[in-house]
Amino acid sequence: MALGAVDALRTADIGNDGSVVVVGVDGTPEARALIDSQTTPLRATVVQDSCEIAEVAVDRLVRMNRGDVVRTRTYLEPYVYKSNHLITSPRRAVAINDLDETIGPSGERMGPPRHGSA
Predict the structure, then answer these.
(1) Helix 2-11 crosses helix 29-37 at what angle (to 10 degrees)?
(2) Residues 35-56: tens digit of each pLDDT
(3) From CA 85, how far away is CA 81, in angstroms rounded?
(4) How many angstroms separate the Cα of 92 from the Cα of each of 64, 88, 95, 97, 107?
(5) pLDDT per residue over 63-115, tens digit each?
(6) Where are the alpha helices (DSSP H) in the chain?
(7) What does the buried/exposed string (b/e) look like for 22-46 if buried means 16 or more CB atoms within 10 Å of the residue's CB?
(8) Model pTM score
(9) Closest CA relative to residue 49, chosen from 30, 26, 72
(10) What is the number of other CB atoms lying within 10 angstroms of the CB of residue 55?
């Protein structure tokens, strides 16, 4: 959507003077290249690390397969990409909150996780 907004602004000849700032959400390579070019109002994008998402998903599946209790939701911290560098890039998975359910070895819902469980 941010790329579409940039195209619309360009077509309408709006924002080339720095009066408009666009921030995207998917962190696609195209968006990052446009940010790096510094020729459009697109100044930053929020990036979700697809490799980290895959790593955590596989880790959770392996844990479930061996019978461990795992959370039903895991929050992966996104980061902001702005002109050739990352603003923040945490590499940690954290639970959304202690009210999330956990899933037991047989797929049964077990209610909120105990503190310290992953």
Answers:
(1) 40
(2) 999 888 999 998 888 888 899 9
(3) 6
(4) 20, 12, 10, 15, 25
(5) 999 999 888 888 888 888 887 665 554 444 443 343 345 555 555 555 554 44
(6) 2-11, 29-37, 50-65
(7) bbbeebeeebbebbeeeebbbbbbb
(8) 0.58
(9) 26
(10) 14
